[in-house]
Structures are given as C-alpha cells and as structure tokens.
Amino acid sequence: MATSLGSNTYNRQNWEDSDFPILCQTCLGENPYIRMTKEKFGKECKICARPFTVFRWCPGVRMRFKKTEVCQTCSKMKNVCQTCLLDLEYGLPIQVRDTGLSVKDEVPRSDVNKEYYTQNMEREIANSDGTRPVGLLGKAPSSSDMLLKLARTTPYYKRNRPHICSFWVKGECKRGEECPYRHEKPTDPDDPLADQNIKDRYYGINDPVADKLLKRASTMPRLDVPEDKSITTLYIGGLGENVTDSELRNHFYQFGEIRTITIVQRQQCAFIQFASRQAAETAAEKSFNKLIINGRRLNVKWGRSQAARGKEKDGVTESGIRLEPVPGLPGALPPPPVSDEDASTNYFNLAPTSSPAVMNLGLPPPPGVAMPPPPGFGPPMFHAMDPLAPSMPPPMAMRPPGQVHYPSQDPQRMGAHASRHGGP
Fold it and tell me: Span 188-211, mean pLDDT?
C-alpha cells in the first residue's frame, strides 16, 4: 500500500508537513491569541489516507477542542477548510457551491486512481501561487447570484460548542456545572441533519445540509419592479453605524448616475435616487439579497412614490395586502356631530332607559329667604306655652340694617343680661 507507515523513503516523501493549517474564521474562533498543538504525521487524511500534520486547538471559552481532519492538498483541491470542509469564500457546503458555479469535479475514489489524481494536483498546486483554487474550480466563474444570496457574512461560532452530554440525557451525569459537555435536549434522531458524513460532504453527494440550503434558495423571495415608472429610488436597510455615504456611492455608481443619497442614521437606512429608471432597475437586480458592505448584508427594496404613501384604507395597502388588526387596541372613536343640535349630552354612554343620577347639591337660598342656622348655633328651643321662654329674635331680614349679632352676642340669649329676666 502506497500510504503505509513503513520505512519506505519514497512514500515518506509524499507525506505532508505543514507549519500552519488552512481554516475558516468560524473554526479558528474569535480569540486572536490562540494556542495550537502540532503533531507531525499525527493521522491519516480522511480523504486520501496519507499521513499529515495534525493541529489541535480550542476556539474559545466553553468551546470544544477542534483539530484538522483532511490534509492541505485535499483542502486546496476543493478550496475548503481542513476542519469543517466548508468553502473558504462563501462558507457553504461543496455541493451547494458546485451547483451554483455549475462545476462537476469528480474526485476518483479507488486507491490507485486517487493517488495518481492527488499527485497531479500537487504538481499543479506547486506551479501556482498557492492562494487560488486549482482544477475545474479555478476555471469556474468568480461569482454566482445564488451563492451571494446564501453566503454567510459573519462567523457562526455556535458551531464550535461542545457536544451534548450523553450521561445527562440518561439522567446520570454527576458533574453538574463542571461538565464540559452541553446539558441540552438532543435533536430528533429522524432529522436528516443528524446524519452527516465527512466524505459525502467532500465529494458533494448526499449532504443533508446542502439539500436544506438548496431548498431555501429555491424559495427565496424576489424583488418585483413597481409599475410606477416615476419611481427611481431604492431603499437600503440594515446599514448599522459603520456604513458611510461614500461606501454606498462606491457600490451603486457602477449602475448609473446617482442623483441623491440620503442616510437616515436614526433608522439605519438610506435612500438612493438614480437619474434614470433603467439604472435603478439594474441596481435593484444586481444588489437584491447580494449587497454586502463591511461584512453586513444590506436589505434592498424599491422606494414608494409620494402619491402612494398613506393610501391605506380599510386595512388594505396600495399593493393589495390586507393588514391584520392588532389585538387589544380600542375601537375607533365616533365622528363628531355636525351641528350643536345633533350633539348628545350623554357623555358617559349610559343606556337611554336609565334615569339620570340625582345629586343632592346644597344651593344657596334666594335673596330674602332665611336659611336655618347650622346645628348648635341657633337659639335654644323652648315650648311656645312656656311663660319663661324668651321671645324669638327677629329674622335677619327683619332686623334693622347695620345690626349684625353673632350667637354669642345675641341680647336675647339666655344669660346675656340677668336683669331682664328678673334677676337680682
């Protein structure tokens, strides 16, 4: 066998010895100060079965240790990461990338043909600068609309999390918080994503992740051109805080003359108005779901004309989409009355048959009518037949003007003047 670990000098010359791995940003982790262990000829490549240098590292805190799985020759042939085997440029499986680029690169699987094919690819890699893919992939077009729509713009570090603890699933894990594995519910074993094979991913066949992404690409929304020919403005959403006016202009000037660029920093959006409708249509077609600036995927939509704004009646927009009512909101207020005669005095929405509430309010007496004094301040009450009962004082209206007597100063009050009542 050509890849045996014996003392054959010729076979050892084909073994790989490298100083640094070929990794994607996700597998490398977010920590720039990372430490790796290097083991020369540590394992056999899972594709070509030749010994290669194995690198092992931890991509971050509370992450699992990762290592390289294939040699650098196999990685350069497909332009993929040595660990996750995803494309280095788009972050997509090989099957999705080859479908988008219309490339069909079949790697032989038998031992003899695989060795011969690998030697030829190594010779081609040695003659190139080593930074670009070789073979059919190197001759493929540089971009694809489908790949730009599906490409991941930011690293997905959750892929580096530890595996699920099998003891916790059985209820037998005794480590608690010190357990290096995840204590979460496992995925459904019938889920197609639960059955992934590294060789199927490399050869681009029977990859469940690729099948899922291809189905998503077939159902992705498209941007319809508005019927109003006066609309030449595009809406750009999701700018963030780092996208500037010059960066938007550098991307959109290639499609035609730009009239104005308005950035609304509060809403993190921008409006780009072109001088012609043809330039706006070209910019929308080339940028929809494919515009990436500073690592952010921006949302591109058509703007609305001034006449179309606000035309939302009876819960239906100008595009014919019926809006669902929001639950919990109060109903619409009744329209105001046309005239004062039509105005109703029923301010509390009471039923017509209910009688109005009677409120006992103390109103002041009309002029000339005496008001009874409050309790405790009036004259003492005596029986009319009592000879000792003093005469009642005249009412306030019958008294001469200028004589105002308080109860404590009333001359008719008992005990005010003892001589009047026959006292000594």
Answer: 86
